[in-house]
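Narrative of activities, Objective 1.

The group set out to show that a structural description can be obtained from nothing but a protein's sequence at a throughput compatible with the screening campaign. Below is one input-output pair from the validation batch, recorded exactly as produced.
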Amino acid sequence: MKNIWLSGLILMSCIVASSCAYRTQKYNVIENSTSISKNAFISIEPSEFDAAEFRSSDGTILRYRFLPPSHRVQGESYPLVLQLHGSGGVGTNNVTQLDRLAKTWAVSDVRERYQTYILIPQFPIRSANYGPPSPEQHAEPSSALIAALELVEDFAAHHAVDKSRIYAIGFSMGGSAAWLSPTLRSNLFAAVMPISGVAPADSFAPVFKNTPTLVIHGSADNENSIASNRRFFNEVLRIGGKISNSGSTKVWSINCLVKSIQDIGGEIGCLRSLGSNCG
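Output recorded for this entry:
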């Protein structure tokens, strides 16, 4: 499980740095990446994130944290990463949504390297709902997720955000919410990265034909079954979705993932992948 957090940061960082290859046809290769010590999170305090509150159009109150770019330049605009927490972060204290994946962005060398806004709302209720594992298991959004996407639009309107580089990443329930976000705002996100989430219903597959999506899931997950992701992945392929920008397929198990990142460098920015063996 520890590799998921590290891999998620590296992969999303590649997306942020590359501005997404499918739009620019350019790659920003991240070389000589090093592992982040698990102790790096211990020193990160909630006070390092700015705190604020947002009221959506339906009256939902969302408390959230955010990190601005550490070196903002007048007249420049920056990517925005929507960081979506798992079910353990549900609440209203504006603290428990700051899990390890969220805190990674505040690690000094990470923040220095990736000049981006990080937006971390806390959901007062679940952001995504789904039943027990079954062949047709799929995620559905809650009103809180809809409110969070209003927050993204409002935040982008009031900060120096490059609206062509807005991304969603989440783990577990947050991974499901990352899947669902483009189904609610199809033109808002440049790319999404669901980690160990439950995919939407097949009827939403057309949304993902042109939405760069990096799917990370382990076949041994006994909380959220990988089956829904395989189902949805295959449906996107069936209707004409592409596996990668180059047309080549790469699949990994979690144990192979970090090595594979090093092998393919910046190509990861627009890779759509899901599988269970080293490719």
